[in-house]
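Model the whole thing, not chain by chain.
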Amino acid sequence: MRTVRKFRSIAAAAVAALAVIVSASAATAAEPPLDSPAARTEVAISSVDLDGPAISTVKVTVKNAGPQRMRSLKVSFAGPVGWAVQPAVTSVPGTFGAGATAAAEFRIQVPEKRDGFTLRTFTATAAYTGGDGAGTATATRTQTAGDPFPDLAAAYNNVGITDEGDTEPGDYDGEGNSFSAQKLAAAGLEPGGRVEALGAELTWPDVAAGTKDNVSGAGQAITLSGKGGKLVLLGSGVTSGATGTATVYYTDGTSTRGSFGFPNWSFDPADAHGATLVASTDGRNRQSGYGNQGIAYRVFAHSVPLDATKQVEFVVLPSNRNVHVFDMAIAP
Amino acid sequence: MPEIPAVSRRLLLGGALATGAVAVGAGTARAHPADPGAALPAPTPRRGNGQKSMIGVPYEAHETVRVGVIGIGNRGSGMGEGWSAVPGCRVTAVCDIRENRAKALADRLVALGKPRPAEYGGSADAYAKMLRRDDIDLVYIATPWEFHYQQGKDALLAGKHVVVELPVATELDELWDLVDTSERTRRHLMLAENCSYGRNELAMLKMAHEGLFGDVTNGHGGYLHDLRELLFSDTYYTDSWRRLWHTRSTASFYAMHGLAPIAAAMDINRGDRMTVLRATATEPKGLADYRERFIDRSHPSWKETYVNGDLVTCLIDTARGRVIRAEHDVSSPRPYSRINSLAGSRGIFEDYAGTSSTGGRVYVEPDHSGHSWRDFDSYRKEFDHWLWKKIGDDAANNGGHGGMDYVLQWRIVQSMRAGLVPDIDVYDSASWCAPVPLSVKSLAAGGRPVAVPDFTRGSWVNLRMGLDSRESSMPPVA
């Protein structure tokens, strides 16, 4: 199991030495002003036992790294959607001096472990008065189990390209339609061919027409190695709202998130969601054969920023089936 | 005819309560449904001195679970054989007011190579004699509904664990008394809710816990079974006991088959609880219409007037803002369904729909889009409960109702032999059966919301394990 931890206060994370748990004290001395440049409140979430089905106990610690005593502390905790937590929020009695740490315990219902790669994110938020004066601080903890797909091709789950002579396998849009392999080739997109977009060198799926050739977004984790300034995704959308967040995990355990979207493969403006047109084909393959001549069906590129100082380990695609990805690559 | 106890006036339609409360209820049905304070109250009696909760209390471990069966009609007969088929379980005594039925089951068990159980019968209190035996660990009750409460209570008082067919009782004070008696005697009483162990239902539960439906917001279950032919049969329900309930009560008698799986998926009594119930009922047309078309005028049913609505619907709010719709209809022409629908912020499951081999269909984001249902098959395979993986084949060979009877019995015996905490306890049983009296109360008040008692006395807030259990083995049989 890998563990990715992320500490974040409203202002910025600042890791300080651990403080011992300090019981509440009623003593209040003269307090320093809030404009101190000292560290911010730190929230940490203990490891969550994911060996379900079980009720696991989670400890959330809140360190008052601010100059004032922390008061009226309420800690909330949440796991993945649908996972019951008891309590959802709890008040921590007492006040906590500078450097003191308070703790709250929660119980969470953990389901049976699923096969394959899973990524579980837990969030804790502290709301308080005093302390660093920010009022709230949040921590997230992400735990993974299993392995991401070794590459995008291993995650292909949709047939988006068919031969005009055999269109039935296609179902790019959920209605049985697909790109024409012949028309894509005419537009320069051939199996295994290079595609340059937004500074990245991508590869058009090197598979036969009528076979799975793209990933319809469902939160799949895909292994990807390298460093760069942005992650470029090649694809297009179906129906509407083909947008989402790509989360990039680095080898140091941190992550960054970036939003992107693709226009509908046919009817949206080519620059919708900030995408860039890569190729446009004439018509599409329907279950009954090639048709819709005169209407453009298109492929786009879009990107999300990366932390260029870090080595990418894997990418989690959006949980949005309307987003179809043919390839992704790191660009400088 | 055997004696059938007088049904409480609180269950009767047409009594003073019903007449008066309709007027009281008029104009008040718009009270905020989620506000228990606006509902007709359901006070919580004080827990008796020295009486403690049975939540989390394991069975004492048994080398062999010895079962006494009370009631050997259609249900008890099959389940009696079912108990004997479970490894490490033996039926040691059988009882029916009709002695010949006890003998017939004993004969069948012998024919199956099992030890002959002791036989009791011949009188309404024969079961009490059976309860005095010291070679019974578990009493299984499958008599007509009106006997369940007293027999269940007597079995607890005799120091036995108890499994009772639906419903465990039909009155609120009876349900409370069973809770209290279980707590006092330190013996478990549970509803024999076989549908809680249905394969689709358990997969639905595990999907809910995984979060596939997002935050679960609503569920829909019930018991929709065209029983008209059976209800008018002169042999199927002894002395027509079940049809007679339709002449004297407006209750949602038997919605637990669909309610219980939804309650499990919502962790009722394990982090959430049912707070308010409102009931509606359609006119009772079905049985009279069936009688008109198919029943000879000389049949005793022609002296009867049916008062139980064909479709009784209970809308139940929970403390966490969810809504459950529980339906009961056994008197209309329709295919069978327990509905089993669960929905949340990210998807929905529906049973008894679609064309998949599992009988279910599903739509969950992000797996699905395009507004079209998908087959449940792959999800049931992934979220198949360990009980079905482990004993599904045995269940198919030994149990009725698609095998879930056997899974229920196997799990109870396993829990007792291994000293585990039961998946279903007296609090679940009381909660799931509470809509029986509460639907009467609400209907009598013109559909007014009525508070649902908290049988856990506050412990519902605590997360705890239930039907979504961890895999464990049946102890080896010596």
